[in-house]
Amino acid sequence: MNDSIVAAVSLAGDIAEELRPDMYSYLNLTGGKTAYIIGNGTSRQGLDLSILDGDIWGCNALYRDYSPDYLTIIDVSIMGECCESTYPKHNRCYFSGEWEDPLGHEEYNIIKGTMGVPVREWIDPSHTKVTMHGKGNGNVGILEMQAIGIEDDYKITKIGGPEDDYHLFENWFAGTTAAAMASLNHNYDNVVFVGFDSIWNYDSTKYNNIYAGTRCYGTEDDPENNRLVETGDQGWISQTDQLKILVDRFPNIDYYIMKDELSVEPLEQYLV
Q1: What is the mean pLDDT of the chain?
Q2: What is the C-alpha to C-alpha distance for residues 228 and 237, in angstroms, rounded to an integer?
Q3: Burial class (CB in 10 A: 0-12, 13-18, 19+), 14
Q4: Distance separating the N- and C-terminal Cα atoms of the chain
């Protein structure tokens, strides 16, 4: 490649870098403060999250690759993996389950032998306390206990609903829960869903997730991992119904869906 071509390519790259942040300026469609809820659908692969102009709310295993302003996890195993990595020591997290009264190691070792179900441990040598969380389903009950190590200074906030309906967001998915925590606890004017392919491009034949096939995740070709469409008998309601509740509950917030870095649309059109 000759010098003139190299120079042209370099100049084009510099111009793109200067213009790229401006691509997102239109996202504040109503002005004000914006939260970006980052799902793990494959449409966000390659998106530079650091240039989004607002607070970043990540879901589940995003922390492996990027540290958002807030991380929301519902799945017990991913919470365990996250705590084992000591990520919550320096980063703000919203987790489901009980975190208020952790056990000391001596007490944990006594209780561990009385469980009656397998116990999976997510305990780093630095952890001085342990929390216990059941994992199973609504039809069978608890199939496994997960022991998750923590420290007193871990920045974990327990997920909960508003004072007048504390269980409103119970059994929601990680993405809708993140949006609910952002809407409830922070003064956002706009909430933008990024990487939520299931909202606008749902495919029941595959598990559309960047982390499919990795630790704590099912494989891409396992449709059993899709729990999004139907309201079921295990306490889950469909993602669409969760989003409808969210929009109705917070009428002063404008909700959007980002399909790619140049395509942002109002969320409401996908909730019919």
Answers
A1: 84
A2: 8
A3: exposed
A4: 53
What's the Cα-to-Cα distance from 153 to each of 83, 88, 121, 245, rounded to whole Å? Answer: 12, 8, 20, 34
How does 138-149 read in b/e, with b if 16+ C-beta sit within 10 Å?
eeeeeeebbbbb
Alpha carbon distance 78, 72 (integer Å) = 10
Q: How many CB atoms lie within 10 A of CB 78?
A: 23
Question: Each residue of 17-49: pLDDT tens digit?
Answer: 454 444 445 454 557 899 999 999 999 988 999
Q: CA-to-CA distance for 189 and 169, rounded, in angstroms? A: 20
Cα–Cα distance for residue pair 147/134, rounded to 1 Å: 9
- Sorted by where each begins, the domain ranges of the chain are 35-74+159-272
Residues forming a β-bridge with 36? 56, 192
Instruction: Give the pairing type, strands 141-150 and 129-137.
Output: antiparallel
Tokens of 74: 């519902």
Asked if pLDDT for residue 188 goes beyond 50, the answer is: yes
Return d(Cα 126, Cα 92) in angstroms, integer.
19
Q: What is the amino acid identity at position 224? A: E
Q: CA–CA separation, 261 vs 38, rounded Å?
A: 13
Burial, 190: exposed, middle or buried (Cβ in 10 Å; 0-12, 13-18, 19+)? buried
The model carries a pTM of 0.85
Q: How far is CA 251 from the centre of its chain?
A: 22
Contact 196, 41 (CB under 8 A): yes
CB 174 within 8 A of CB 74: yes
Residue 155 CA to residue 60 CA, distance in Å, equals 16
Helices and strands of the chain, counted as H and E runs: 6, 12
Indicate the length of the chain as a whole number: 272
